[in-house]
Amino acid sequence: MISVLSAQNNCGPTTIDSSAYEGTAYFNFGSIAKSKNQKYKTALSVGQSFIGFIEGTKNNSTLGFYSRYLLPPFALKVNATQGDLLDRIQITWEVDALGPSPNEGFNIYRDGIFLATVGSNIRSYNDFNVIAGVAYSYIIRGLNNFGEGSPSYALGFQVPNGVVTGWVQTRNGNPVPDALVTLMPMQGFSAKFTSTDGAAAYNDITNPFFPTSGSDWTMAFWIKTNTAATNGSVIHLNSTSLYIKAIPSTSGDEGIEIATAESGGTVFSATFPDSTKNNWHHVSLSFNGGIGRLYIDGVLKNQGPLTPVASVDTLYMGAQAGLGGWDGLIDEFRIYHDQLDELDLAEIMETTASSQTLGLSHYWKMDEELGEKSYDIKNRHKLFLCGAHFDVDRPPVRTAGKTNEEGYYRIESASYGTGTTFLAEPMKSFYLQKSIKLSTNDMSYVTIPDFGLANKATIETWINTTGSALPQTILHKK
Length: 478
What we know:
1 helix; 8-stranded antiparallel sheet; mainly beta
């Protein structure tokens, strides 16, 4: 038993607590290194009391705990960004504090090819020479006097961010505005959920999911249901009482219901046959004037009073949206700060949007293919996948853009790599604009020229009403 005052103890690359202390030390089958008190100094070893050396005809060996510092560096903890940065992939790593020191730096490899050597004090590397939409495998190996260390791996990529631009004109050179240009072949992925998988996106103050309470909005997405339990959770807007659930299959039909609670609380619902469009269906829920309207594949299926959405702090999908029990896929999830109807949905449900689309608030394409999050192309808002993963099964949505008044179009989020041939096809559906839209809230009306009527006459018109349940005037002649 002796009294000691501890000094700094640095036996390797590990930083040891250097704070001094006074007290009594007991030595039982062991000892302490570099210890001293006011009168005596000594150097002893704690734990293993020797470092041995064995010399053979082919190999030399060193024994004891500290022999690990006479080896090439151990494996590192390596991370690579997966869509987090727009212009590069950043690789970062951490050194094993109890392993051999990589005092001669690090070697960096990409897809098995040597990329660079960096100094021993470097812990990150930015790779700018990458193609968006392509995944790269990175290897980091430490270096010291004893050689190159164990390989450590990380997968990194950028989110597809290709942009295709062009001009549509008539044969005599005049621009064609409002023409839709689509690309072939189709590309992309979807998010696949089992009955216990979920996803979540968290709100921020700058870019709220939904507009102020009572304002118009539309939420649209493609869905494919494999199986669903009663109250199968699909979407929930947290801090509100709005739930979107999957209806279990009955007699070959399944569907969607809008509810105000995890269990029960159904407001209105709609079904669709399993065989339509390879089981993929487009679902859209819009809100206007206190009325919610549910569209399936662009057709109004049901409507009813809906409580205004206010202060949505989290967007939940799958099992995190309620009781779970839904197994399927989601793709092309969008939120608009505007009300969309049949004319709008007919155009958007089978084509992609862009960050410049009017009214678009958030848009997750689910096209990352790898990783554990999807990025909103409007604000880079992250949707974290909690068990869900990307899948090649996807709906018939084509990458597309729309021409402006000068005939120019811009198509975003294309991921056609180097050497890939794709075809751009322009089209314009004039029939979509051959109806008159009247709004009850705006008290809108149309005056037509006076005309005569015989004693016996027939008046014919096509109408599509999505307004209130009160009587509405369709045609009036004095």
